[in-house]
Design goal:
This protein is mainly α. The chain has one domain: Up-down Bundle (Butyryl-CoA Dehydrogenase, subunit A, domain 3). It is built from eight helices and two strands. It has a two-stranded antiparallel ribbon. The longest helix has 23 residues. It starts with 17 loop residues before the first strand and ends with a helix.
Length: about 210
């Protein structure tokens, strides 16, 4: 994992500045207000955007690459790109949707660099929580569950890029077709078709 410095200087642990609306915190600022404050030069504002959205962005990246270090690296790249392009955010969609759009592009670009033809069919590893038995579940059952999840992720990794992105956003992030269309820059009909084909291809791969 490559550790890079954030392009803004205030660390997440830095004290937040006080504005007319009181202390700048996640709880008392909307996304739009944080974007406005960040563009106005309040460095802590973007730290709060990261704090609010980093979990969802990380989970999105993890679903694409299945590796914690790579996912953390990609999530960092997403926020660096968002910081540099924040003036391009017009507010036509939610900030979360805009970050997902950047995240999908970053992940698909990373996968394209890896040349899917030579990519391992099972490149994904079990997350720590998938090795731990749930309440009432035996160790053997936990292992079998983890194996099933590994096989599903390995099959998802073999789907065409648009199908993979659609399936991840629809199934794992429970997004409606309309929101996915906004993220992928396609029509709702295309999203539905991609999801239909993704599910059919996934069933074939798992058989």
């Amino acid at each position: 994992m490559v550790v890079r410095a954030w392009p803004w200087s205030a660390p997440l642990s830095a004290p937040f500045s006080t504005t007319k609306g009181g202390p700048l915190t996640v709880a008392n600022r909307t996304d739009a207000e944080l974007v406005e404050a960040s563009l106005a030069g309040e460095r802590e504002a973007f730290d709060l955007i990261v704090e609010r959205h980093r979990r969802n962005v990380y989970q999105l990246c993890y679903r694409f690459v299945g590796n914690q270090d790579d996912a953390a690296d990609l999530a960092q790249d997403v926020f660096v790109r968002a910081f540099r392009g924040l003036r391009n955010f017009k507010g036509e969609a939610s900030l979360g949707t805009w970050l997902y759009r950047i995240g999908v592009n970053v992940c698909l670009n990373r996968l394209a660099v890896k040349t899917p033809a030579s990519e391992s069919l099972e490149p994904l590893f079990l997350a720590n929580d998938e090795r731990i038995a749930a309440p009432g579940e035996s160790a053997t059952e936990a292992l079998l569950r983890g194996e099933r999840q590994r096989r599903v992720r390995a099959a998802i990794a073999r789907l065409p890029k648009k199908q993979r992105a659609t399936l991840i956003l629809r199934v794992y992030h429970e997004m409606p077709h309309e929101q996915i269309a906004g993220i992928l820059g396609s029509s709702v009909g295309a999203v539905k078709a991609n999801f239909f084909h993704a599910m059919n291809n996934l069933k074939k791969l798992l058989q």
